[in-house]
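Ticket 4471: requesting a sanity check on a complex prediction with iron/sulfur cluster. Repro inputs:
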Amino acid sequence: MSMEELNALQRGYHRKDELEELGVLPPEETVKEKRVALIECVEEIPCNPCAFVCRLDAIEKEGLCTLGKVDWEKCSGCTLCVAVCPGLSIFLQQIKDGKGYVTMPYEVLPAPKVGMTVQLKDRSGKTVGEGKIVNPTYQAKGDAYPRWVVTVEMDDPALSYEVRAIKIPEE
Ligand code: SF4
Ligand code: SF4
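Returned structure tokens:
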């Protein structure tokens, strides 16, 4: 079976066109106004830490096993849901001063540092460009899923709709 024939569950990620159809990706006017979260969960499994952790009640889940959706009016871009999601399925997006920004979970070494130039990867793992780390924060003690939450800047704002991972080159 070719990659084109696989569904999101078999593939392990949604394609951008599928996310657009699901209404998951925030419109450009929203991300130009503020940083907001979006959920790219693939599996409808019993899970809800994202909705539980959101202090603004911005994540809507009709039931424990249904896919969540972010209310961008309510979302403040606080990153708590990115830090807590066990599926690494939540990201933040923003377009500011003509540049794109994506905030994502990061759980491997080497440790991210401000100013590092990194490879930008799309949902399939393909390298789509280079970006710069602008804000790594480490969620550790007391958190269920210790990890970094990294924000990366990219010159092409359209890439913020594609980039969902980074690779830090070995020193
Ligand atoms: S970024 Fe913060 S406010 Fe927005 S959905 Fe996530 S937890 Fe809620
Ligand atoms: S916490 Fe993550 S995996 Fe669980 S329902 Fe929310 S988005 Fe999906």
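Notes from triage: Residues 16-22 form the longest helix (7 residues). Leaving this open until the requester confirms.
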